[in-house]
Design goal:
It contains 11 helices and 11 strands. With 323 residues, it is of the alpha/beta class. Helix 2 runs parallel beside helix 4, helix 5 packs across helix 6 and helix 7 packs across helix 8.
Length: 323
C-alpha cells in the first residue's frame, strides 16, 4: 500500500490544531472521504492508501494549511469544499513516485470587494463556458453557485469595462406561495423576487456603490417582462430562475442580445413553479438550442453543491424518490 510522508512548512501550534480539527475531526473527515489513513506528529504527516487518494489528501492538507494562516477557524464545510476540489483533480505519475496534482488554469473572478474562486471542477467549467461563449446556460440544483458565479462574471466584465451595463432579471413567479398584494412602487413590489441578485451584488460591490450604479442606469435589476421590445448592446445579461419563464419569455430574452453583449441563463428544471400544464422555457430552450455550437450548456449535479453538506443529501434524497 503506497505511503507518503511529508512535512508542512513551519507552522504555529494554533494553526496546526485548526488543520487537524478538534480531536483530529478534520483528519478523520478526510480519511473517511478518501478511504485513507493519516498519522500526524507536529507538522509531519504520513498518509497511506490508494495512490491517487494519497496525493489528493496531501493537497487537501496543504489547502487547509493555507486557509489556517488567514482564518481563525477551519470549519467542516471548508474541509468538505477542499475535499471536493481535490476529488475533481487528476494525479500524475511517471517513474513510480507520487507527484503533486497538476496545476490548473486560474479561473478566479476578481470583483471590487472579493475574489470569487470556483470551488470544484463543475464551477470551473461553468466559468470557462461564460468566458468562451456569448450565451451560456447553467442548469442544476440549488446551492451549486450558478447565480453567484454569473453575477461575479458580470461584475468583473463591468469593472474591466468589457461591458457598460449589467442587467439582472428573473420571472416574477412565486415558489408555491401566493404573496398577495405588495405595497409600494415597482422596485418595492419586485424586490422579493430579485433579492438573491441584490445580495450577490452587495457582496461584490457594496450596497452604496450598487445603489449609485442602479440610479445612473449602469445596473438594472428588473422583472423579465420589462425586457420586451429592447435591444441591449455592450451589456451583461443574466436570466435567473429561468425554469419559471415560459417558452415565449425565453425566446424574448435571448433575442434581446445585441452586439458586444454576453448572456447567462441559470435555472433548475426540477424546481418549476409555473402553473400546472405550462411548459418551462428552460426545458424548451434545451431541446431547441442544445445543438447550437455557439451556445454553451453546462449541467450541475447534486455532488456539485457547495452549501451546507445536508443540502447535497436532501437533493439526492428527492432525486431517489423521483426515480
Amino acid at each position: 500500500m503506497p505511503k507518503l510522508k511529508f512535512k508542512l512548512p513551519e507552522i504555529e501550534t494554533q494553526n496546526l490544531s485548526l488543520i487537524c480539527g478538534p480531536v483530529n475531526a478534520n483528519l478523520e473527515q478526510i480519511e473517511n472521504s478518501l478511504a485513507i489513513k493519516i498519522k500526524s506528529r507536529g507538522n509531519s504527516f504520513s498518509i497511506s492508501g490508494e495512490k491517487n487518494n494519497v496525493v489528493k489528501a496531501r493537497m487537501i492538507l496543504e489547502d487547509l494549511a493555507a486557509l489556517a494562516q488567514t482564518s481563525e477557524s477551519v470549519s467542516p464545510d471548508e474541509v468538505h469544499f477542499s475535499i471536493c476540489r481535490a476529488l475533481n483533480g487528476t494525479a500524475s505519475d511517471s517513474d513510480g513516485t507520487i507527484f503533486e496534482l497538476e496545476k490548473e488554469k486560474d479561473l478566479t473572478i476578481q470583483t471590487p470587494k472579493l475574489y470569487v474562486t470556483p470551488r470544484n471542477k463543475s464551477q470551473k467549467n461553468f466559468v470557462q463556458a461564460i468566458m468562451d461563449h456569448d450565451i451560456a446556460f447553467g442548469i442544476g440544483p440549488a446551492g451549486t453557485g450558478k447565480t453567484y458565479i454569473a453575477v461575479a462574471a458580470a461584475v468583473n466584465m463591468f469593472v474591466e469595462e468589457k461591458v457598460n451595463k449589467i442587467i439582472l432579471t428573473r420571472p416574477a413567479v412565486e415558489a408555491g406561495e401566493h404573496l398577495g398584494f405588495l405595497p409600494g412602487d415597482l422596485s418595492q413590489k419586485v424586490d422579493p423576487y430579485l433579492r438573491p441578485l441584490y445580495d450577490a451584488l452587495f457582496d461584490m460591490m457594496g450596497p452604496e456603490k450598487v445603489g449609485r450604479l442602479i440610479e445612473n442606469g449602469k445596473i438594472e435589476v428588473a422583472p423579465l417582462a420589462y425586457m420586451r421590445g429592447r435591444t441591449l448592446n455592450d451589456a451583461f445579461l443574466i436570466l435567473d430562475e429561468a425554469q419559471n419563464c415560459t417558452p415565449a419569455q425565453m425566446k424574448m430574452f435571448l433575442t434581446r442580445i445585441g452586439f458586444g453583449s454576453t448572456a447567462v441563463v441559470t435555472g433548475d428544471i426540477t424546481q418549476t413553479d409555473l402553473p400546472k400544464g405550462t411548459p418551462s422555457g428552460l426545458s424548451d430552450a434545451i431541446k431547441i438550442l442544445d445543438s447550437q455550437k455557439d451556445i454553451a450548456f453546462h449541467y450541475f449535479h447534486a455532488d456539485d453543491v457547495v452549501r451546507h453538506n445536508l443540502v447535497q443529501k436532501i437533493i439526492e434524497a428527492y432525486e431517489r424518490k423521483k426515480d
